[in-house]
Amino acid sequence: MKFRSLVSLGAVFLFSLFVTVSCAAQEQTTTNSASPTTAPIQMGFSAWPGWIPWQVSQEEKLFAKNNTQVELKWFDGYLDSINALTAGQLDANCQTLNDTISSVAAGADQVIVLVNDNSTGNDKIIVREGINTIADLKGKKVAAEEGTVDHFLLLQGLKTAGLTQADIDFQPLETGAAAAAFASGQIDAVGVFAPFTTQALKRAGSKELFSSKDFPGSIPDHLVVSRKMINERSQDVQALVNTWFATLDFIAANPEQAYQTMAQRAGVSVADYKQYNTGTKIFTIEENLKAFSPGKDMSSLSFAAQEISKFLVDAKLAKQAPDLSKIFDDRFVKAYAAAKKG
């Protein structure tokens, strides 16, 4: 769930078909006079409204103000950033809960330390003219990036109408390619996230059928770090968390400046970027603390993780459910909250 454009969204949709982990990352870096003994944190992010604020962190030098050194790396292809973290090319990355669980199921040792946001409408199932109900999707060509949150959203929606993936002609396409295919009339429906939703909705007669707002709490987005990062540089993990909340404070105090920065990074107009606000719920420190607490619905990360793990196994996207006992570490948000109170 992220924004990925150095030039324009249209270019992203074409370019993202060819990127690889080694060349897809179009870097923007901040070097804060790294010490001889401590290398800058390699941190990835990509095209999603809940992660774009990190661009503000960079441009306003908020990493340095929170005593850490970061090379912030932009990925045009979201899955490339996940692969880079798994391969050890990154120390930290911005990922969904769904994709983090997939990585852990495949053997990665990754830890969620911060909730950036919940998707509350910016993940959408968009359909062509003539499709008016979920039941109308039966037999239709529907595209989404397999194993991602939009695939998860699609299956949740189908379930409400008594349908499964077997009832549609599922087209597993990378998100940018899926949006482009839908916009050009090649498929009947598509599951995509903002800002790719903007591109998909350019198709004449297209409309939203349902979105993440209809499934509250099912798509949380996070800052994820490697276990090695926590073990060897826990003070820098704390600095990243502190920087995130400092960034939110900066955006609240300087909204127009911040929106310019974020819209430029997203490759959309400021007006378009502001429209994404209602579709992304940025989490406060209090909401972070609540999310990390045990619960019996999707607002609790531990509960959501169990539900998503079941989905991955049932959809045969994971061979077996991963060990979720070590996937969350709330000590950093707790430390930030304690420092604010003190």
Automatic annotation (TrEMBL):
The keyword ATP-binding does not apply. This is Sulfonate ABC transporter substrate-binding protein. InterPro entries: ABC_SsuA_sub-bd. It is found in: Periplasm. Residues 1-24 form the signal peptide. Keywords: Signal. The keyword GTP-binding does not apply. One of its GO terms (cellular component) is membrane. Pfam families: NMT1_2 (PF13379). It comes from the Bacteria. One of its GO terms (molecular function) is ATPase-coupled transmembrane transporter activity. Gene3D superfamilies: Periplasmic binding protein-like II. Belongs to the bacterial solute-binding protein SsuA/TauA family. It comes from Aliterella atlantica CENA595.
